[in-house]
Structures are given as structure tokens and as C-alpha cells.
Amino acid sequence: MPVKPVPFDPDLMPAYTRLVPGGGTPLGPDSLPAARAGNTAPVSMDEVIGNRPVAFEDRVVPGPAGAPDLTLAILRPKGGVTTPAAVYNIHGGGMCMGNRFWSIDSFVDLVARYGIVAAAVEYRLAPEHPHPAPLEDCYAGLSWVAAHAGELGVEPGRIVVMGRSAGGGLAAGVSLLARDRGGPAIAGQGLYCPMIDDRNESVSSHQYDTVGWWNRNSNHWGWRFLLGEEAGGPHVSPYAAPARATDLSGLPPAYIDAGACEVFRDEAVDYATRIWATGGQAELHIWGGAFHGFTEQAPDVTVSRASKAARDSWLERILALTPVPA
């Protein structure tokens, strides 16, 4: 029986039509350079931070063994850390686009509001750097943050790893790696609309085959860039595509969300369900009428405000955060 897409929230439609004018240009090998070029404008952190009491620095740290060094964007309260906790962010971009500054305004806000530290990793991108390069970069960056927690003013056991889209998939992979390699300790994993299943065969992926700005075709190419000919086949590593993991026990508590109107909806639901089946902790939110990345593209719409409030509530509970007095 043919599947029909779930209708979008009308309040989100203006943002959606801006994202997908005339249907958009499908992602693929020929269109990737243009897609990257449209997302590489220089970032002025002075402008991003504005008058918020947040200090920024880029820190170059060791990469994985035999690989280049990494750059971490580090944000700290100007008046000193008041809550010794950190969030470690992995940016999205379908495994093939993006940089450490994507969504960084939201992390400036977290640092200012809670007095914590935030770090964002610049990892190598596919297809030039296929799996496991992006994952190992993200793991190396997290390991550095954990090893230098004291220097940063953070307790080693109070670090949440998080990411949006491809970054959510990499955050899930890093959490699996940390469990299986015996560290570093992670307090929680925030998996926002995570890209975790290379098979691309769920009901939601078929519902959004040609609909949406990150649709089934884009997802196909994101995974193909990362995994090459192995994408969708029987030999894909669960660290690359965490939905492939057969053992989801012993993982840090997870926050998992997605829009009802995106390809990642069903794999997000399945991942949470399988964490629960092991006795693990997962908080799951599926936002009605919402498309992929809605909180960034339409931040002031009612459903986006509700989503951001739920994410902050989970962080407050996992890291024992309270807002800094004004």
C-alpha cells in the first residue's frame, strides 16, 4: 500500500518554502560542491556572542592516532564556570557538509544561561574522508575534553555528547565507542533528529522520498558518501550506523527526538524502543507536523519553542543545571 506523507504544521510552511524553493536541487555528487559553498560563510563569533557574557576560543587538539589535529570551538562563561558541566556538540550536515559553527548560537545561549562549558568539534567530512574518519575525530575530541575537564572547570562525569542530524548519528556512535572502549564517561547523549540507519527503508523514509529538504534521496547520498558501496549492505559497522547495533545496553541516558514529517522519525522511535528493551533510559519526543531541522529553521514557531524547552529540561535533569541568576 502506498504511503502518504504526514502534513506539515501550517506555522512551519513559510520556513519550509524558503528551504525548498521550487523543489530544491537534489543532493548528489554533482551538487555537493554547491551545497557546501552555500553553507561556508565566515562566522564572526563577536557578532554571534553579542553582549552575552561568554568567551570563545579555538583550541587545536590531537586527532586520532596517525590523523591530523582537530579544532574545537570552546565556549566558557566570562565570569567563570558556575556549574562544572559541559556539552560536547557534533554538527550536522549529512556527514558531508557543515562545520563547528553550525548552531553555535544555541550553545552560546546554554553557556550564558547555565554557566557551563560547551565544545564543538570540527571533524573531517565524507566523501573525502569516509568512515571511520568522522567518527574517530569526534571520539578524539570528546576524549580530549574529558581528559582536560579539570582545566576547563568541568567534572569528568558531567559531560553530555549531543548532535543534530548527522551529528546525532555521530553522537550515538561515539556513545557506543565510549562504552566499548571503556571511556570516557558520558552523562547523557542528546540525539536530535539523528541520522542512524543507512538502510533508508523505513516507512518514514518512503513517506519523504521526494518531500522535504532532507529527503530519502539526500539521505541515500549522505550514507553513500560516508560508506561507499557498503551503504545499505550487510557489512556496515554499528559505530557508523548505530541502528545496526544489536546491543544497546549499558549506554548513557538518551534524549531522542525527530519531527513527524521527516525520514529519521521511524529510526529514532526504534532506537529509543530498543534502548528501553535493555532496561536503559531514553526520552523520546516526536513533534507533530515538524520537518527535519525545524527548531533551527523556524525557532519562534510554537512547536519549535516546545521542542527546545523539552531539550533544555532534559539537560537540566541530566546535568543538574539551574539557570544563572540574572
Question: What do these coordinates show?
Answer:
By secondary structure, this protein is an alpha/beta fold. It has one domain (10-16, 53-319): 3-Layer(aba) Sandwich (Rossmann fold). It is built from twelve helices and eight strands. It has helices at residues 13-19, 32-37, 45-49, 104-114, 133-147, 149-152, 166-181, 203-207, 216-227, 265-277, 294-297, 302-319; strands at 54-61, 70-77, 86-90, 117-122, 159-164, 188-192, 254-259, 282-287. An eight-stranded mixed beta sheet has the order 1-2-4-3-5-6-7-8, sandwiched between helices. α5 (133-147) packs across α7 (166-181). The radius of gyration is 19 Å and the shape is globular. The mean pLDDT is 95.
Write the H/E string, N to C: HHHEEEHEHHEHEHHEHEHH
Question: Given the C-alpha coordinates, what overall shape results?
Answer: globular
Structural class: alpha/beta
* Beta-strand percent range: 15-25%
Number of helices: 12
The first-level CATH class is given as: Alpha Beta
First-last Cα distance? 56 Å
Question: Topology, please?
Answer:
Blueprint: H1 13-19, H2 32-37, H3 45-49, E1 54-61, E2 70-77, E3 86-90, H4 104-114, E4 117-122, H5 133-147, H6 149-152, E5 159-164, H7 166-181, E6 188-192, H8 203-207, H9 216-227, E7 254-259, H10 265-277, E8 282-287, H11 294-297, H12 302-319
Parallel strand pairs: 3-4, 3-5, 5-6, 6-7, 7-8
Antiparallel strand pairs: 1-2, 2-4
